[in-house]
Amino acid sequence: MRLELKQVWANPGRPVLFSGEEDLGTIRWYDETLHLEGPVEANGSAFYQDDHIYLFLHVRGVIHRSCSRCLVDILEHFDKDEFLEVPIDEVPPGMQYLELRPYIENGVRLAIERKPLCKPDCKGICPHCGANLNVEGHKLGCQALEKEVDPRWAKLKELLTSQ
Fold first, then answer.
1. Buried b (16+ CB within 10 A) or exposed e, 118-140
2. Percentages of the chain per state (helix, strand, coil), in multiples of 5
3. Which of 40, 110, 53 is nearest to 82 (CA)?
4. How would you classify the pairing of strands 32-36 and 73-87?
5. What are the residues whose beta carbons fall under 8 Å from the beta carbon of 144, sequence distance 6 or more?
6. Distance CA 151, CA 145 (A)
7. Least confident of 41-50, 83-92, 119-128
């Protein structure tokens, strides 16, 4: 998606509206590769003032993620408004347009959860037996079923059981 700069510079202080879809496919975010479900809807306005281009950007879409506790695949919907300031010296001289893709990608990154959950009360995966605790209970012989004694109280327990 591109923003025609001559329209922006022609009327300083007046907003130029833009709207469209950007097919991002996948984007990197921290240690994760995120797959988007279809194109991202982006719209907003831009205006030029005081050697800056100001962007009001709205992004909306759906992204494939994994629950951070139980690793189940989920679809996360995002909808975010963002205000950006682009200094004019970041735009190369003679440039006819401003490519909006990097700003749309950043809008997506800001809109999504850092640690997504399939549901607010997700129980996750048992660290001992590997069972998904949302779907099934602990497996037979799981160490999580045994009550662990705090090591600071272990000597006291030995005293009580020896008598």
1. beeebebbbeebebbbbeeeeee
2. 20, 40, 40
3. 110
4. unpaired
5. 126, 127, 128, 129, 138
6. 17
7. 83-92
**pLDDT for 163:** 67
Concatenate the DSSP letters of all residues of 98-111 into one string.
EE-HHHHHHHHHHH
Determine contact, residues 17/45, Cβ cutoff 8 Å. Answer: yes
Closest by CA to 78, choosing from 103, 107, 47, is: 107
Token pair recorded at residue 127: 């660290």
pLDDT per residue as tens digits for the range 65-121: 999 999 999 999 999 999 988 888 888 777 888 889 999 999 999 999 889 999 999
Burial of 55 (0-12, 13-18, 19+ CB in 10 A): buried
Q: What are phi and psi of 7, to 5 degrees?
A: -70, -35
Selection from 102, 63, 66, 61 nearest residue 84 by Cα: 102
